[in-house]
Amino acid sequence: MSTRLLRGGVAAAAAALLALAGCGGGGGNGSGSAPAPQLNLTGEKSGKLTIVTKFADPQYAPYFVEITKAYQAANPKVTIDLQQVGDQPYKDKIRVLSAANQLPDIYFSWAGDFANKFVRAGLAADLSSVIGPDTAWGKTFAPASLKAFSDSGKYYGMPIDLDGKYLVYNKTAFAKAGIDNPPATFEDLLTDCGKLKAAGYTPIAFGNQYGWPAIHFITQLNAYDVPGDQLAKDYNPKTGAFTDQRYVTALQQFKSLADTCSNSGANGLAHEAAQANLVSGKAAMQYMESLEFKVMTVAGGAPKETADNWSFMRLPPSSSAAGDTKALTGAPDGFMVNAKSKQAALAVDFLKFFSNQENASKMVKELGWLSPVSGSVTNDNAFPQLVDTLKDMNEASQFAIWLDTVTQATVADAYLSGVEGMLSGDKTPEQVMKGVQDAAAKAKKQVG
Amino acid sequence: MTALLNRWRTLVWVAPAVALLLVFVYYPIVENVRLSFFSWNAFSPHPVFVGLDNYTTAFHDHVFWTALWNNTMYAVVSLIVQVGFALVLAAVLEEFVHQRLRGFLRTVYFIPATISITVAGILFSFLYNPQFGLVNRALSAVGLGSWSHAWLGEKSTAIWSIIAMSQWQSIGYTAVLFVVAIQRIPREFYEAVRVDGAGPVRSFFTITVPMVREMTTLLVIITVSGAFLVFNEVMVMTAGGPDNSSHVLNTLLYRSAFFADDMGYAATIATVIFVITFVVAVVQLAVTRRRRVEW
After folding, report:
1. In terms of C-beta distances under 8 Å and separation of at least 24 residues, what long-range contacts does B255-258 make, across chains too?
2. Do A26 and B35 touch (CB under 8 A)?
3. If one looks up domain B36-116+171-290 in CATH, what number appears?
4. Which of A123, A262, A420 to mutate to test the interface with B (most CBs of B within 10 A)?
5. So what family is this one in (chain A) (predicted)?
6. Dihedral through CA B174, CA B176, CA B180, CA B185, nearest 10?
7. Residue A22's closest chain B neighbor by CA?
8. Contact indicator for A113, A407 with CB cutoff of 8 Å
9. For the segment B97-112, what is each residue's pLDDT rounded down to a tens digit?
10. Which of A55, A100, A140, B150 could form a disulfide with A268 if both were Cys (CB 3.0 to 4.6 A apart)?
11. What are the pLDDT digits (tens) for B167-185?
């Protein structure tokens, strides 16, 4: 590069920077209030629907493809562009589509603040008139699943599945350790971990390589230890402060659980790698989503000794828990409709088709997921533990939505990294909460 | 008149390339710098102008400094291994190894460079696995079990484990480039120093090192720039954890944009990366001009 060219480049860069100083605001998505698209279909079903999901996993993708094909076969004038990407790539893709005003007609969302972001930005259609609990379609769903996608009394999403977090345990291991009944309290669990260790088992198989498995424990412990109104206040980015001492208590409990019950090196071990220890009978328990239960069956690849000898329980609360001890960590995943979609009515019609009794039962049978559609889970299409899971979910007072999706992203990030630091012995529970409090202050500033 | 016509003709021919450069290279850079002065995310209806706030935040963000430090360490280790050791390796291959074995070894060293970085990352995740990983097993087998770690799960070892993987993958590539450079050196030079009584080490420092300096400079630039652009290996192996200890600037950028929904801050980090790599490139180009080898 010649000196003259270099000078020219520097001068151009300086000029560009000076010009920038005078620049104003950029683009965006327009109004934060959701418009009211037409949701009731009139006339013939025709047109093109775009759908983006996060179910690219080869185990799940074919089911969604089949449903779209079936809808197109029933409605020949409708074409569907279905795009499925993986879990993490979906988070990137949907943000890029949102920023570019290119959201599809129907898109996937986790419950909690992830969904609320679309609501706040006016990108989620208010579906209350068609899926509210008093509507014909809404009555086909478990009410708690609809509530997970509600905000200020309005309903913005259709739940796809039901997912809860349970301690799955090997009954043989419990018997060998002399544990007759599953522990009723958190303190009992710690005691039982000692018995399991003495019997030669890793009490709880725990892999926390990407941070979220620990966060699921914290979600449940926060719900147990912190009263509901305080939780609601702190999980709302506009009012969150996280100064209640009981958040520290929850972290202390988790630390004692990790120290007493889990394998070492959890931060360097993937959840799935740890799971192999439970499936192979080397570990006695793992904290697992009901969506994963299929791995404990022969059809899911487990050996027969494991498949015939497993059950599940909730993470037991501490005897001094001050919060809701009937709450269950979990949430449905959902589909939302683009508020600016010109095909919103057709999108709703497709979602009604997706969630009809026949397709919901098919999902339970083929994917091993629980469906929020009432009556879709039966002994004919689900293994016994899955049927029992649904019964247990119905007894839960509420879903404690995943901490990393219910809170604003900055807060979630502080929790994720802070708990990793606590597990590796570099941070105390108090230091973790200090980081969360700082993040909450930043989040408050961000949402105004 | 003819000169003016020629100048216009030149401009017409150059214009498409310049237009493409402006649209796909310079405009995104300028737009990125502009966006770094705003607080915004993919969902925000109205980006808010915050001046230099994002830069101030970066200055006080310990994760940002950790990431910058990690990038710097990546560059330092890569320079030592991928330039220093690779040159020694190439010289040894050319000087001491038999012709037949030489080709085989070059292939062996080069093979890791042909493996996708994602595949290599996953492979090393298994090697570093605290329960069944080869690294801990090997240490135990030779009586060094106390050195075992959850290599990717501990703050003190995570980034170094990733850097080590990266060296394994790249040293063969740079060594082969050095082999090519060494083969271009006239053999008479080596014969002359041998007549003067110089041994292999002396001839390495007096002949090989100065004569491959153009290649050395090129590899220094590639290695340093590459160290500040590293992303895939960190994302695959730790995603910046545990406790943000293995973040590099690019993964921090990605986390800020797509996890924390803070696109303005992500644009700020991108600007910092641009400035660093721009400065490295300019210095490198200036140095190259002065170090041309002629014979």
Report:
1. B255/A413, B257/A95, B258/A91, B258/A92, B258/A95
2. yes
3. 1.10.3720.10
4. A420
5. Belongs to the bacterial solute-binding protein 1 family.
6. 80
7. B34
8. yes
9. 877 888 888 888 899 9
10. B150
11. 999 999 999 999 999 999 9
Residue A11 has pLDDT above 60, yes or no: no
Tens of pLDDT, residues A164-208: 999 999 999 999 999 999 999 999 999 999 999 999 999 999 999
Q: Do B129 and A24 touch (CB under 8 A)?
A: no
What distance in Å separates the CA atoms of residue A332 and residue A315, rounded to the nearest whole number?
A: 19
Task: Domain ranges for chain B, please list them.
Answer: 1-31, 36-116+171-290
Is B38 within 8 Å of A270 when comparing Cβ atoms?
A: no
- pLDDT tens digit string along B48-92? 899 999 999 999 999 999 999 999 999 999 999 999 999 999 999
Selecting from A28, A31, A96 the residue whose C-beta is nearest the C-beta of B47 gives A28
Q: How confident is the model at residue B45 (pLDDT cuts 50, 70, 90)?
A: low
Residue B4: pLDDT above 90? no
Q: Are A373 and A360 in contact (CB under 8 A)?
A: yes
ipTM of the complex: 0.81
Q: How far is A417 from A412, CA to CA, in rounded Å?
A: 9
SS (H, E, C) chain B: CHHHHHHHHHHHHHHHHHHHHHHHHHHHHHHHHHHCCEECCCCCCCCEECCCHHHHHHHHCHHHHHHHHHHHHHHHHHHHHHHHHHHHHHHHHHHHCCHHHHHHHHHHHHHHHHCCHHHHHHHHHHHCCCCCCHHHHHHHHCCCHHHCCCCCCCCCCHHHHHHHHHHHHHHHHHHHHHHHHHHCCCHHHHHHHHHCCCCHHHHHHHHHHHHCHHHHHHHHHHHHHHHHCCCHHHHHHCCCCCCCCCCCHHHHHHHHHHCCCCHHHHHHHHHHHHHHHHHHHHHHHHHHHHCCCCC
Per-residue confidence (pLDDT) for residue B131, from 0 to 100: 86
**Domains detected in chain A:** 47-162+331-376 (3.40.190.10), 165-329+403-447 (3.40.190.10)
Closest chain A residue by Cα to residue B259: A409
**Chain A with chain B: Cβ pairs closer than 8 A:** 138
Cis-peptide into B186, omega within 30 deg: no
How much of chain A exceeds pLDDT 90, in percent?
73
- Do B30 and A20 count as a contact with CB atoms less than 8 A apart? yes
CB-nearest partner of A267 from B30, B37, B153? B153
Asked whether residue A20 carries a pLDDT value surpassing 80, the answer given is no
Asked if B43 lies within 8 A of A118 by C-beta distance, the reply is: yes
Query: Contact A426/B155, CB-based, under 8 Å?
Result: yes
Contact assignment for B154 to A26 by CB distance below 8 Å: no
Contact A247, A436 (CB under 8 A): yes
Contact by Cβ (8 Å): A148, A334: yes
Supply φ then ψ for residue A263, to 5 degrees: -70, 160
- How far away is chain B from the Cα of A167, in angstroms, using its nearest Cα? 22
Q: Which two tokens stand for residue A323?
A: 């919060």
